[in-house]
Write a structure and sequence with these properties.
Layout: E1 2-10, H1 20-38, E2 42-47, E3 55-60, E4 63-68, E5 76-85, H2 89-96, E6 106-111
Length: 115
């Protein structure tokens, strides 16, 4: 079954660019991505541009409203995602725990609905 791993963290909560800790975070992401690719379970994944580039679209009463910013007011924002093939939820949770942001942010794990 495919699961989507949505990677959330609060702005400034993790290592900052230009620091050795950030370089290590990027190396850790590279290692995780290589691991799931080598295991043959990765379908897709990508980081997202900063939340300041987000636009939220709502249609209410036939009117389209596009506003700058993320879809909800929250301290944590979506920073990237993976779609992985996992045996079951326990396997998905184990893989989510290996995503580097899990130590200071959160990883939402959701099954992908097969249409």
């Amino acid at each position: 079954m495919q699961y989507m791993f949505l990677i959330y963290s609060a702005d400034g909560s993790g290592p900052q660019p230009g620091t050795p800790e950030f370089d290590q975070l990027m190396a850790d992401y590279g290692a995780f991505t290589k691991d799931v690719r080598d295991a043959g379970v990765m379908h897709e994944g990508a980081p997202l541009q900063g939340v300041e580039t987000a636009t939220t679209v709502r249609v209410r009463g036939g009117n389209v409203d596009a506003v700058d910013g993320p879809f909800a007011e929250t301290k944590e924002v979506l920073g990237g995602y993976y779609i992985l093939e996992c045996a079951d939820l326990d396997d998905a949770i184990a893989r989510a725990a290996k995503i580097p942001t899990a130590v200071y942010g959160s990883i939402e794990v959701r099954p992908v609905l097969s249409m």
